[in-house]
Design brief:
two-stranded antiparallel sheet, about 65% helix, single chain
Amino acid sequence: MACCGGKKTVSGPEIQTEMKEIKVEKFDELFTEGSEALQNAENFRAAMTDSKATCMAISGAYTLKVGGMSDALKCFMWSVCQEVGADKFANMKPTIDIEAENPFSMELDPAMSAQNTEFFEAFKLWVEHVAGSADSIQILTEKLKGVSEKAQELAGTAKDECSNAGLNAIDTTKAVAAIGSNSKTLATGITKLGGLASVGQEALTDIKELAGALAGILEEGAKNSDEGKEKGAKTAAEYCEKQHTGEKLDAKQSAADSYIVTYNKNKESGKKLSSVTAATAKSSVKPSVKQSVGVALELAEAEGEEAAPADVNPELKDV
């Protein structure tokens, strides 16, 4: 039986980041900031949702009819226990505490496989970004709104600016259309980012439940690891198949599951999962945007946790 709300699908499509060229310096500088802001928003979305897809895929938990991150963590732990041995496993001491500086911590062992290390990195990224999601979404949203509002202000002088830049009538028409397109992309990004707020709240509840269930997962870890090993399991996905008692999807349903589809898509494209916390989102705001959102940033500064960008291993392994 899965805790943490049962099976949920990956939330929402990617946030588009591309801005069209205007060929007017003032606009192109602004929309470059907009593209960077959208990229930070997309990196945050991926860190909070695609990281979960990575865990569900590597662990095989995506094959469960009712499965969540608790099931993924169980299969991961059982596999790690076999890799490092029961004694070392007992000393790895994984902890989940959303109030801590490091919400998820665990002592790693050199004997851990690359695949299980990848799971660890993705799980850590998921917990960290869910724990700080409210602050991060607020700052990223205010940053995008700052660019969007500035673009709307400049749009009223677009034709004059194009004329001053030496654009002919045809290029001016194209530039005005591109400004409208870029503004729409910014607005869509703001909407998609806002939709992540409820996702973060649900995931935060899941993590709190998972933190409470962790002791039981560890207590039964060695037992389930040994039993699964006797059945031929080694990887987390094999433990899910052979040791986890949850009802499984059929092969066709499993192959179409959103978690494995997202994971495979990211693997094929070489997409990296990057860390974007409240502190790093705030630090990347440019002066022209800071002026528009200064009050919101000052409020967030007192609560934002310090963190530096980090990449999860981009070489996604096969399940």
